[in-house]
Specification:
The complex is a heterodimer of chains A (437) and B (323).
Chain A lengths: L2 E3 L6 E3 L12 E2 L5 E7 L8 H10 L12 E2 L4 E3 L6 E3 L4 E10 L5 E9 L16 H4 L16 E5 L9 H8 L1 H14 L4 E7 L12 E6 L8 H9 L14 E5 H13 L5 E7 L5 E7 L4 H8 L8 E4 L6 E3 L12 E5 L17 H5 L6 H9 L3 H7 L10 H5 L6 H27 L1
Parallel strand pairs in A: 3-15, 10-11, 10-13, 11-12, 14-18
Antiparallel strand pairs in A: 1-2, 4-9, 5-8, 6-7, 8-9, 14-15, 16-17, 16-18
Chain B lengths: L21 H23 L1 H24 L10 H11 L7 H17 L11 H12 L6 H4 L12 H8 L9 H6 L11 H14 L4 H21 L7 H6 L3 H8 L10 H21 L6 H15 L15
Helix pairs in contact in B: 1-3, 1-9, 2-3, 2-4, 3-4, 3-5, 4-5, 5-14, 9-12, 10-12, 10-13, 13-14
Keywords (chain B): Flavoprotein, FMN, Membrane, Phosphoprotein, Translocase, Transmembrane, Transmembrane helix, Transport
Pfam families (chain B): NQR2_RnfD_RnfE
InterPro entries (chain B): NqrB/RnfD
Chain lengths: 437, 323
């Protein structure tokens, strides 16, 4: 791990992994024989888990715009329902399987498996049009989340999304033309938005020539590249904690996302290769370029890594990522890191009483009183936590759990509380309905 | 379809840890306390060792007993009870009878820790609580002048704080600061050697276990208040350096005040906590009926911690303090 443990007053500083000035070129993976895509199917706010899964299954098969056995071609936009998220077929082939899948905190997805094969261009497929940018965006590498309302400022994150992710730095170093094309698209689409580029400290000079783009150098100390902290760096103000960042007029894009949009804008061909930082149990890092939807097992096999019984396979970095239960889980558009961790290297979860040592409070970048918050969360008082103990100010960096000497799963408590707090309005609605009946 | 032949384990982020443990913290505090005990052991020998071992052992036994009664898994491995026992012993004279040692550790573990739920849950510093209870119950056991009668010493064999209380500030001149600093004085097992305490304290502050905000502001509180008293009446009240080097001032500064569970965690509350504690120690010494009384100051400040903890900065993106 990249932990700099300074003796000075016991603070641990976690630094983003930085690429060397001349980065190694990523190892390209051959196109897989089959890909699995996740289609986000959030049905209604507050609805999740089993309930949503049932709802999804109840939709008669005819309502789906896609069927098993449909031929799809590379670069085609696929939609399951009239409304809802689209995905882009990364390879040509046949849809062989569609099944619902429940992710963390009740997020419901449809999985779509495409077996590669020589297929004729399906009828009704049209070439990619510029107006499809918004629909295509969530399926592009880096997962640009484009808002419907024009943002006042666009912040481009040139650091990682997690401590080990180096894809954005790589893109900054090697894909200047794509980034320029992406910037052109932003200027055409949102002419009044200001553009800000965040790079690691000391690398501003390379970017000063980019026109109409303010460049900031930030110290690569985790979690400086967290969206809300970037917003504060740019505006000098803090966005209201309870509302999404876009309400404050800020859109944060990963550099890789911007480059993907640039490629699509300039060439009309959606890029489907995702940069991925892989680290096996030996702790050696590999930068690979993978087709979106490739199963994790393919990546591991290619690199000669192994995940054995009981290991953790973690997508998305050690601080904020999630462990998956199956090796066939696909690489998603926003998967920047893939880790294989032996169980004994992990953090054993314990739930002793909080020692009140204050390490979490002092490291919290959002000034949340974690020690007080934890006591309410343990009791399950989520409303009180949100009102009096700044639950919603948390920026999900996971540093509190990282430093806790008691190894209390604080981050997990906070995630659960946020989830319960967000779906509370829906919950109280159903309660009042029941009372009415 | 997402399936797998290999069964993987699913856990929650983060998947990394800085490596600090509760047991590690406690072990480090125990190690940092040794430089203060060793000079006493070297000078007074076996009786001091006996009290220390008796206290540590009985504290751990008491913890086992209470955890068996309350049907909790044993927490002996985290070292909390051992640390409490050690700190209690450090506040005792070396002629303490064995039953009083066991009584003190029983009070500290039972009433100070386990009744609230064990490590980290107690509102009061268990060491200070047990010592305060014994000081009230059997004050004669803590009478240092009596317990040192058996030794022939090459320095004034009288407890400096008592001497100053009785004889006025001039009595302080009988003690050289160098003697007090190096531990050539009459004191409790772990509080005599200021140099040793300073070494341990510096280690703890550098490692971030005893917060420097609390330690230094406590010392500042001592110095400021003692200077104030001396300015008002230089004949009755001894100077700040004397107060700093005698009694359990430094012990309280590095080991009692910054104890995790009972102290605040944010910078400004920590500074207020320390300043208040320092001022209370001098007030109790100069105006109260106890010679030292640092433990009472610690307990009183522990009471204020929940209020001090509320003095916190506005969190990210919050518009006001309460909303």
């Amino acid at each position: 791990m990249i932990v700099n443990r300074l003796l000075t007053l016991g603070s641990s500083r976690l630094r983003y992994a930085l690429l060397p000035p001349t980065p190694p070129s990523p190892d390209p993976l051959p196109l897989p024989s089959s890909v699995t895509l996740l289609m986000d199917q959030s049905l209604e706010p507050g609805m999740g888990g089993r309930e949503a899964l049932l709802r999804l299954k109840q939709i008669p098969g005819k309502a789906f715009k896609l069927q098993k056995g449909d031929a799809v071609s590379q670069g085609q936009i696929l939609q399951l329902l009239e409304e809802g998220q689209a995905v882009i077929a990364p390879i040509s082939g046949v849809v062989t399987d569609m099944a619902p899948y429940v992710g963390d905190y009740g997020r419901v997805y449809m999985t779509l498996t495409i077996e590669a094969g020589e297929t004729d261009m399906p009828s009704g497929t049209r070439p990619f049009a510029g107006s499809d940018m918004f629909r295509a965006a969530p399926a592009l590498p880096g997962k640009p989340a484009l808002p419907e309302t024009p943002p006042a400022r666009v912040i481009i994150n040139g650091l990682g999304s997690d401590v080990l992710a180096t894809n954005n730095q790589y893109v900054l170093k090697t894909r200047k033309n794509d980034l320029e094309a992406g910037l052109d698209w932003i200027r055409n689409t949102w002419p009044f938005a200001s553009v800000h580029l965040m790079v690691a400290e000391g690398q501003q000079k390379e970017w000063d020539t980019t026109k109409d783009c303010r460049v900031y150098g930030i110290a690569p100390i985790y979690p400086a590249a967290s969206p809300r902290l970037l917003h504060r760096t740019v505006t000098g103000e803090e966005a209201p904690a309870e509302e999404p960042l876009i309400k404050a007029g800020t859109l944060v894009l990963q550099a890789e996302a911007l480059a993907s949009m640039g490629t699509l804008y300039a060439t009309g061909v959606p890029p489907m290769q995702k940069l991925l930082q892989v680290m096996g149990k030996d702790g050696v890092g590999h930068l690979v370029s993978v087709c979106i939807g490739t199963p994790v097992s393919n990546v591991l096999e290619h690199l000669g890594l192994k995940a054995e019984y009981g290991d953790n396979v973690i997508l998305g970095g050690p601080m904020t990522g999630y462990a998956v239960y199956a090796e066939d889980f696909p690489i998603c558009p926003d998967t920047d890191t893939l880790l294989v961790q032996a169980p004994e290297r992990g953090v054993p979860c314990q739930t002793p009483a909080c020692l009140n040592c204050g390490a979490c409070v002092r490291i919290c970048p959002a000034r949340v009183p974690v020690n007080l918050l934890l006591r309410v969360l343990e009791a399950g008082h989520y409303e009180e936590a949100a009102e009096a103990f700044d639950l919603m100010s948390c920026i999900d960096c996971g540093l509190c759990s990282f430093v806790c000497p008691g190894r209390i799963p604080i981050f997990q408590y906070i995630q659960l509380a946020k989830y319960e707090h967000r779906r509370h309005p829906a919950e109280s609605g159903t309660q009042s309905q029941e009372v009415g009946e | 379809m997402i399936t797998s032949s290999t069964r993987l384990t699913v856990r929650h982020a983060p998947f990394a840890h800085c490596g600090q443990r509760i047991s590690g913290r406690h072990l480090l505090i125990i190690l940092a306390a040794l430089p203060a005990i060793l000079p006493t052991v070297w000078r007074f020998g076996a009786p001091a060792v006996a009290v220390v071992l008796m206290a540590v052992g009985s504290a751990m036994l008491w913890e086992m007993i209470f955890q068996t009664i309350s049907r909790k898994p044993s927490a002996a491995r985290d070292g909390g009870a051992a640390l409490t026992g050690l700190l209690i012993a450090m506040l005792m004279p070396m002629a303490m009878p064995w039953w009083a040692v066991i009584c003190a550790t029983g009070l500290a573990i039972g009433l100070g820790r386990e009744i609230y739920g064990g490590t980290g849950t107690h509102p009061f510093n268990p060491t200070a609580l047990a010592t305060a209870l014994l000081l009230i119950s059997w004050p004669h056991l803590y009478d240092l002048d009596r317990t040192f009668l058996h030794y022939t010493l090459d320095f004034p064999a009288i407890w400096p704080l008592v001497e100053v209380r009785a004889m006025g500030a001039e009595a302080a001149l009988r003690f050289s600061y160098a003697d007090l600093f190096m531990g050539r004085e009459i004191a409790h097992i772990g509080t005599g050697c200021a140099a040793g305490l300073l070494i341990g304290g510096l280690i703890l502050m550098l490692k971030g276990i005893s917060r420097w905000e609390i330690c230094l502001s406590f010392i500042a509180g001592i110095l400021i208040t003692a200077t104030g008293f001396q300015l008002v009446n230089p004949e009755a009240y001894a100077g700040p350096i004397f107060h700093l080097l005698t009694g359990s001032t430094l012990f309280a500064a590095f080991f009692l005040m910054p104890e995790d569970a009972g102290s605040p965690v944010l910078p400004l509350p920590m500074i207020l906590f320390g300043l208040g504690g320092g001022a209370l120690v001098i007030i109790i010494r100069n105006l109260g009926m106890y010679g030292d009384g640092a433990v009472f100051a610690v307990l009183l400040m522990n009471l204020l911690t929940p209020i001090l903890d509320r003095m916190r900065p506005k969190a990210l993106g919050r518009s006001s303090w309460e909303n």
